[in-house]
Amino acid sequence: MLRRRSLIAAAAATLPLPALGQEGPYPSRPIRMIVNFPPGGTTDIAARIYAERLQARLGQPVPVENRGGATGNIGAEAVARATPDGYTVLSTAVSPAAINYALFGARMPYRPEDLAAVGLYLRVPNVIMVHPSQPIRTIQDLVAAAKARPGQLNYGSAGSGGSPHMSMEMFLLRTGTRMTHVPFRGAGPMLIEAVAGRLEASVDNIPSCIGHIRDGRLRALAVTGHVRSSVLPDVPTLAETVVPGFEATAWFGMQAPARTPRAAIERLGAEIDAISKERGTRLKLAELGADPPNLTPDGGTTPATFETFIKAEIEKWAEVVRASGATLE
């Protein structure tokens, strides 16, 4: 009798388990999307564009939950510690997904290996600006002024460690100039001071400041992408003016807890890729001044290409943080 039970148990152990548990085809219930920044910012806007389309394509609710704080680390840690079953995902940005590892160092509450890459949503260039009352009319003028008065000019950003801050530090590093960083608690407060003329320069994501530029309240000097922005076609890139090869963009995408079943990762990645190629999505991205993923030859994204992209971004920004001495003020 004991031998018979042992044989039955051994046979059962060799049977394949269902890929994602006993719930049936994935997904069979709502997928919670955590956004690691407050509502209204570019991370939140991008997340809601994709959440809406994912819900329609998957046939399951995709509720969005904002968990901001610590430059995106709080929400990212929550997902890194979540059950890896494919039903909790993270809509994230370049800071918590790449920059923060070097900036926070030992204080970082999670590691790159705690999160799995799913797909890149979009990329958004930053733009360097001055108040129209400034005599600085070109990016070359700003470089000359900064070299003439090392450390005496200031510039504002939406906060320490964000893409605008680190893009500016990368620009200063590569032009051999120094300016004083003035961090704010978000783009809104920073832009109020910039428009009032109380900052000598400022830097921000294009979606947040495009209205001020179009209305003439701020003068755009250069964008940080590798090509000119479609919404600011007359504004040159840093690469074509003062720093050949320069590229530093804010980017946004989806990650999931490590050890999430590969079938779920690939399914979500395929859906994000399909959504990024939809005409409606492309039009919404264009309105934001954003570029599509462009990680694959057809302009899309995959979990594998996004993972490679994140690794390269971690290395790039670690070097910028090290060389510039950037800190969390």
UniProtKB/TrEMBL annotation:
Signal peptide: 1-21
Coiled coil ranges: none
Keywords, sorted A to Z: Signal
Keyword Signal listed: yes
Record's keyword annotation contains Oxidoreductase: no
Superkingdom of the source species: Bacteria
Similarity comment: Belongs to the UPF0065 (bug) family.
Protein name: Tripartite tricarboxylate transporter substrate binding protein
Species whose genome carries this gene: Neoroseomonas soli
